[in-house]
Recover the amino acids of this structure.
């Protein structure tokens, strides 16, 4: 008990360290992102993207792009720089940072500090030059790298390293989105489609809160978005609208997943130098940006406008077209090898979906029945939940980012429907596992589960070779050598009275084996098992008592032999189930 308390306190203390470092990296990343955006989009293209309210955005924004023709050029240059850095310095810095961290968690892979820092740089360049990518990817990978690196430094166990990795991942996301509670939940939820890494929950909460406090000292503590969501009320129109939003969100999420993997397949098979792939993807993203500015950068400022019901610079047809174009831009950015995350753009896609439906419903009904801000927020929750199968953390994240807690009743309707319709056979995170039993890191748990659910009668050998107590030892030796077996039950009729093993036989001198009876060397009243016992119970007996096999009897009254089971039988069964 004392040792367990010490281990818990140690992990909590280390989680604080992870949170502090993750918070500092978050602040550094956000500053780098601002600098990169000002340089690429501001100075070269002459475009200043709108910002969300929590980052200084507000009234008076004027949309203007001085050099529109340079937009695809700049996004291509950003991709070229990223391609060069990734190819020559750290290939693992490409793609979705959160997914890289999930893979490292399940397969015990290292996350180098060089890769984490490079992820910060390449993501800042990708997003700052106009790539459609998210902030959470680099911070998830950096936070995970901090946790795993600290565990390696202190030579912790694999389990402790993974808990710190998960805590760091949640800390990075919680700090960058200013959503510490969601970060804590993500540290346990994001690795699985239908399960939680429960042991990481408390360390994840602690690391995420600390990271939020540290990062906030540099970038502020305001929620990312400002919303004014009215108190929820229900009517047949309202309920029907959010049901439709849930259905549409499921299709949008499936379209997002399909498009992303299809674009990635195309770029993986593209016969050009790897350095050029992010440049090609970036150029195509720039073309999408010429149609809709929502396809450029992280677009949080545009989502902020939608939350306020503002469509000053975007016509309704362009807003509709923005859904597939932002999906395509995200897929081109990350599928081509650009750096960043999929979380933020998925929220943007969901927000646009909600805004489009609110406008459509209001035009159809001829009245302002649906609040655009509310449907924007619910769309964010619903699409990402369906795409990533992370409902709890997503709804808490969006609630913290917007302070829009009045949205929860509507969100529960849409997100539940969206997730169930979309299913979770394939999510936006390729390395997510269905549950803990599918994760290689929990292989021992899987073995225990399989052994617990399998019965002795499913595995035992029923065609058992037996001897009587009066048989000579030489007969036992010859049978063991010919049949490659290490133990033979001794029976009188069908009743088990003993067992003789190879080690018993070897104790008899060779010249005396013909005269010596089996009853003189057998183990009387051997440990027997029943057909309906589970294999886990049998393995515990084998391990604790040092046995390699046991006769299986019908019941302990008659001791009638019905089979025999050995460690080898159980091992073969595990191999057949694919866990050894």
């Amino acid at each position: 008990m004392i040792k367990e308390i010490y281990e818990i306190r140690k992990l909590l203390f280390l989680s604080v360290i992870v949170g502090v470092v993750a918070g500092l990296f978050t602040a550094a990343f956000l500053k780098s992102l601002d600098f990169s955006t000002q340089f690429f989009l501001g100075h070269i293209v002459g475009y200043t993207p709108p910002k969300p309210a929590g980052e200084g955005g507000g009234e008076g924004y004027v949309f203007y792009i001085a050099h529109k023709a340079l937009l695809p050029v700049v996004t291509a240059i950003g991709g070229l720089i990223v391609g060069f850095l990734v190819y020559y310095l750290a290939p693992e810095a490409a793609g979705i940072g959160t997914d890289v961290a999930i893979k490292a968690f399940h397969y015990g892979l290292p996350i180098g500090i060089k890769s984490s820092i490079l992820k910060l740089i390449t993501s800042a360049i990708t997003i700052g030059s106009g790539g459609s990518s998210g902030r959470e990817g680099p911070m998830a990978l950096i936070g995970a790298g901090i946790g795993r690196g600290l565990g390696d430094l202190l030579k912790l166990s694999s389990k402790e390293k993974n808990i710190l990795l998960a805590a760091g991942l949640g800390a990075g996301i919680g700090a960058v989105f200013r959503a510490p509670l969601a970060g804590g939940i993500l540290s346990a939820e994001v690795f699985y489609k239908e399960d939680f890494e429960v042991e990481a929950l408390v360390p994840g909460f602690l690391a995420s809160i600390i990271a939020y406090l540290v990062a906030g000292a540099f970038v502020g503590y305001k929620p990312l978005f400002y919303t004014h969501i009215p108190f929820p009320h229900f009517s047949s129109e309202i309920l029907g609208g959010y049901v439709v939003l849930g259905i549409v969100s499921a299709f949008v999420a499936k379209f997002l997943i399909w498009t992303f993997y299809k674009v990635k397949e195309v770029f993986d098979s593209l016969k050009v130098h790897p350095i050029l792939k992010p440049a090609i993807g970036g150029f195509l993203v720039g073309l999408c940006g010429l149609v809709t500015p929502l396809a450029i950068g992280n677009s949080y400022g545009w989502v902020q406008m939608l939350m306020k019901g503002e469509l000053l610079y975007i016509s309704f047809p362009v807003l509709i077209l923005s859904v597939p174009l932002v999906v395509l831009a995200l897929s081109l950015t990350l599928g081509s090898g650009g750096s960043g995350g999929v979380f933020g753009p998925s929220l943007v896609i969901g927000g646009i979906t909600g805004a489009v439906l609110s406008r459509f419903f209001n035009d159809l009904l001829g009245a302002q029945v649906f609040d655009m801000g509310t449907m924007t927020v619910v769309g964010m929750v619903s699409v990402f939940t369906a795409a990533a199968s992370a409902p709890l953390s997503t709804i808490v994240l969006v609630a913290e980012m917007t302070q829009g807690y009045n949205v929860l009743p509507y969100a529960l309707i849409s997100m539940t429907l969206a997730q169930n319709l979309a299913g979770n056979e394939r999510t936006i995170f390729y390395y997510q596992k269905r549950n803990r039993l599918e994760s290689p890191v929990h292989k021992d748990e899987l073995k225990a589960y399989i052994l617990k659910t399998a019965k002795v009668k499913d595995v035992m050998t029923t065609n058992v070779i037996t001897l009587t107590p009066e048989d000579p030892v030489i007969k036992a030796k010859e049978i063991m050598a010919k049949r490659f077996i290490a133990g033979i039950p001794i029976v009188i009729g069908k009743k088990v009275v003993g067992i003789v093993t190879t080690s018993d036989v070897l104790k008899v001198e060779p010249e005396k084996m013909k005269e010596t009876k089996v009853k003189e060397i057998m183990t009387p009243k051997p440990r027997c098992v029943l057909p309906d016992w589970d294999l886990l119970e049998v393995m515990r007996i084998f391990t604790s008592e040092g046995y390699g096999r046991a006769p299986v009897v019908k019941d302990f009254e008659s001791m009638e032999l019905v089979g025999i089971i050995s460690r080898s039988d159980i091992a073969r069964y595990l191999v057949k189930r694919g866990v050894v």
Summary: The mean pLDDT is 90.
